[in-house]
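Exercise 4. Each item below gives a protein and its sequence. For each, produce the structure-token representation.

Item: VWFA domain-containing protein (Stephanodiscus triporus).
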Amino acid sequence: MPLILASGSLQLLANATSITDKESEVESIFLKLESDARAFRDEIMQAYGARCEANTVEECYQGNFKDCDSKFPNQVCPRAEEFVVPDCGDGVSCNALWDKTVSKVSIPGLWKPGEAPSDSTITETVCYSRLAEPFMVEKYKADEEYWDQYDVRPSSSYFGAHDGLFRMIPAVHQDVCGAYDHRRRPWFVAASSGPKDVVLVLDVSSSMEDYYRMENAQDAAITVIETLTVADRFAVIAFSSEASQVGGYTGLIRATTENTNHLVEAIKQLIPQGGTNFGSAFANAFDALDQTIENEATSGCNIAILFMTDGQITQGPGADEVTSLVNERTEQLASNYVRKATIFTYSLGKDADHNVTKAIACSTGGIWTLVPDIYDDGDLISAMSAYYKLFALGLGVEGNEDFVAWVEPYVFATGGMMGTTVSVPVYDRNVTPYLFLGVVGIDVFIGSSDIYMSAIERILGEEATSSIMLERFVARSTASCPKIELSACELDALRFLSGGEDATCGVCNSTNYSGIVPETCPSQNYLPNDLLDNSDSKLCNVFVLWMQQKRH
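Answer:
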């Protein structure tokens, strides 16, 4: 007898089929973006392999376009809804310039036209990454064809190197020269470190009033928090005579935009007062971790405790007791929960305690960094955000080759529009351990009728910023946890990179740092001084000159 379904059942079946079809189509879009990111990664890896070749250096001379100083060869006006550079207009007419036929480069800080960056490794990165430009151009053309079926346009693709060099297509001018540092953006940290639990431990004792250390520490903590993604969990512990968790939380929380904004505001309200109790600080940090793990509310991956102080212990357990406490609690995390915790300690200023903080890092397989005061050119923000370098080495090991990261929608630095990014770490896999080179990323806009995510929104009938969509990004970014399996010499080499010889734990000498410390090319002595083509104008001056040419 044939099976007969009621009309209601048929409708339910049709709805289920429709949902399945929608999910399949969206999955194909996600997979395409992830595949594109991996292909881009492979192109950068191949380019790095050719960095020492003579042609790479020779053709780099005046062969690049800078985001602030260069007139792009085929620059045109984008539509106002695509992006607006506020310093150049309101977008009512022609608001900016871009070029889809070349990439642009930038670095944080000052880079004078006609001169090479002060760091020769950045110059080398400019030159080898230029080899990937033909791929980037062709990829953009192919993307225009693919996205035409959804009536949307492709977005930016870029490579952010570990040393600060940033290369992007389409080429577009920045409104503030030298202000952008991709290493402090969520997409970079997510791809270079993977999912993680982060506990920030801030000294708020009265001595932090000196030399703007409190403000410096607050800025650094906020920067670290703002680079976390929805795949991460975090907590902030403030300590002086006693310690407590900031923000009214107990345990670690997911790093959503709402949660990070709340903690950022709470950190801004911290006031220095009281003594310095290391023991209470670390006890609170480990208690928060234990509680979160027991509640099964963690990322399930690596743990980083970032501990900063400017003083010596004045209250609570002494130095030996604190070191023993930290060792015992890290061992308990490993034995009870099979979780590895890495301690990163930061001594702020020349008068800060060095012995205890360094001993804690050395005894637990962590990293200690001495950070001079601002007056002595100290940069705590860079020092603290560099914890991802250790985790990046873990992501490079076998089993994580195809790792990709998605981040919660955020405001893009160019144009101020909302979007997300799919990103993939890049390594030199010809050395052991693999050498971390940087991260490639592909932007995905949201919120407008002519952009990527609007296609996904239309297919699924979901808002791009909805909790359901957010869970999609989390699920795609937590597929694997990087395992940190470094030898004692490799770990000491990483300490050397972070803080020089003084930061090492005396395990090995510099001759054993191969793999962690990259080898220099023989051609580095012959790197070009002038890397930029057409670098005689500034941002809005370029725009004005272009408009004058069009009128004539």
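Check: The radius of gyration is 25 Å.
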